[in-house]
Amino acid sequence: MSSTATKDHPQLAAIFNRDEPRVDWHDETLWWVRAKRDIAAHKLPEWELLRETASQIKNNVLSNLSSYLEQFEANAIKNGVTVHWAADAREHNQIIHKLLSDKGINRMVKSKSMLTEECHLNEYLLQQGIDVIDSDLGERIVQLAGEPPSHIVLPCIHKKKEEIGDIFHEHLGSAKGESDPKILTETARQHLREVFLTRRAALTGVNFAIAETGEIVICTNEGNADMGAHLAEIHIASMGMEKIIPQRKHLGVFLRLLTRSATGQPITTYSSHFAKPQDGKEIHIVIVDNGRSIQLGREDFRNSLKCIRCGACMNTCPVYRKSGGHSYHTAVAGPIGSILAPNLDMEKYADLPFASTLCGSCSNVCPVKIDIHDQLYKWRQVIVKAGYTPKAKTLAMKGMAFTLASPALYRAAGKMGRWTFKYAPFAVNNGANPWYKHREMPKAPEQSFGEWYAKRKDQHK
Amino acid sequence: MKVALFVPCYVDQFYPNAAIATLELLEKLGCEVHYPKNQTCCGQPMANSGYEHLTGACNNLFIGNFSGYDYIVCPSGSCTLHIKEHLHSHQNEAMAADIRKRVFELTEFLVDILRVESLDASFPYKVGLHQSCHGLRGLRISQMTELVAPPFSKPAQLLDMVKGLELVPLNRADDCCGFGGTFCVVEEAVSSKMGKDRVDDHIAHGAQYITSADLSCLMHMEGILRRQGSDVKVIHVAEILNHSIK
Fold this sequence. Notes:
The complex is a heterodimer of chains A (461) and B (246).
Chain A: H1 2-5, H2 9-16, H3 20-42, H4 47-63, H5 65-78, E1 82-86, H6 89-102, E2 107-110, H7 114-118, H8 121-127, E3 131-134, H9 137-145, H10 161-172, H11 181-198, E4 201-204, E5 208-210, E6 215-220, H12 224-231, E7 234-240, E8 244-245, H13 251-262, E9 270-274, E10 282-288, H14 292-297, H15 312-316, H16 318-321, H17 334-344, H18 361-365, H19 372-385, H20 391-404, H21 407-423, H22 449-460
Parallel strand pairs in A: 1-10, 2-3, 2-4, 4-7, 5-8, 7-10
Antiparallel strand pairs in A: 5-6, 6-9
Chain B: E1 2-5, H1 9-14, H2 16-28, E2 32-34, H3 44-51, H4 56-66, E3 71-74, H5 77-86, H6 93-102, E4 103-105, H7 106-113, E5 126-129, H8 133-138, H9 154-159, E6 166-167, H10 183-186, H11 188-204, E7 209-212, H12 215-228, E8 233-236, H13 237-241
Parallel strand pairs in B: 1-2, 1-3, 3-4, 5-6, 5-7, 7-8
Helix pairs in contact in B: 11-12
């Protein structure tokens, strides 16, 4: 992590691109997932209506968030669940630590929760002497490798099966050189089974929290959330405060969209509802703000909170596919991460809204219709005005704005530019010009269109 | 019909033939075309870099140049989209709003306003059509592969009218080429890899020419093709549509 903390997206992406066959492999893998999404979406003639419906339900939630949260809390308490409120990551981590230490628990199993990645819970608990094992297969792999997830749905999509074989050989005792996915998965199953049976506490994320009933819904393909939560005596669910949906009947809209968008599956293998604790056991829900109230107050960016974490924007994003999730140096990578992260730390993540061509594919695949690429454009304006761009760039832009506001200056600059291209190409065709590294400069014509047009007009007189 | 020709700055300076083709094509289709000679740039390079607040003078110049025409036509989806979405003015907001309604990218103007149904053009080559993102997802001149909706393509519809032209299929019909304005230098590694992969798709399908409604994407791909020493050429869609209408 420390090596990525000081580098920005362009630098990390350039390192990723040193191994071109690997970039091709990463790009093709993600594109395959995007193609599966397309097939699944095109099987539903009502797809666009579903997206619009989901978008409107989430807009309603964001406009009435405080009352829905209070309704959810009241109903959850009625169900016998304990509800905690965490203003930020630190408070979230402290609440969980206290729940564990009060029971003398020092080992916990955890299913996928991007919120705990955002809060750096694992590192925090480790410092407090508590061991956390991630039970999602992909997350377990990156955890063993000592890396953060590179994708919110496919955490180890950046690793090849041979590399996973090496990690399992080192940590789980599989045969050296074994890379058969079936055998590796079985190795992980045996290892995780022991973990599920021996952990007294299980932490899960929350996909949907239903205000009307106070229940939470957790979607996994591996059933690992269920295994952990059902066997442990205490189930802690970490929930971003935007996860609310008003009523149970709305769930159908989101479950139909979620995995079709994510992987092209019609539905997750497990969509589990947790409402009441079993006798003698406890359910705790930690509702986390961590900057979400601030984002809710930013008119241009509030609807980023509609996100249901399907990852479709990452799979379709050509920049993500060709730069890898770790280049984004934040828990949630890709286009959605690039509009969420600057809210948490504008200076640290000033590079991310610029890690896009604004091609707009992300907004088109988004199942809840977040205007992601428009928000990337708007974050650029905010970041520049806040002063988080290099001074040289600001100077260059001022010069450009001055030139382009004057027809005479523009014509003179154009002429000079073309003259340089023609008679002094070394001035632009050199290592200081990033364009020239992989691309030839355009050829300069004898005359501009404006010059041609003036002559043509003279001839017509 | 009084039409103002809006020529993007980089087309004016580096690709005058695309602008000439646009002008000739519009004239042949019966438009009275004017070229406001004091035009410079739409301001997009500053705005997309986060400096939209510096584009005020550029915007006012644009409004001064392009007011009073029935339509404003531009051989670039990207510059058209920028004007449609971001042309504002403290002094003349009403005029800015009027221009935003009247500005059209060339192929959408030919299909939607002039309702062109046939062209006396010939271009006997295999051509790959690059769907430039701003024209595609911003102006919606073609259907987007992400959406569940009936397919259409205004540039392809026009290219189908050209004798001898064969459009080649692509593996990824509307993936971005990676130009992205200042993105192409700020994110040089990803940008050039994206361009390389787009070019490869066209070459693998036997394209002799790559065309588009946007020269910025073509300029990017041309830079890669020429570096590779490829025979494949780029050509603006206007140059094909105007080919041999003499």
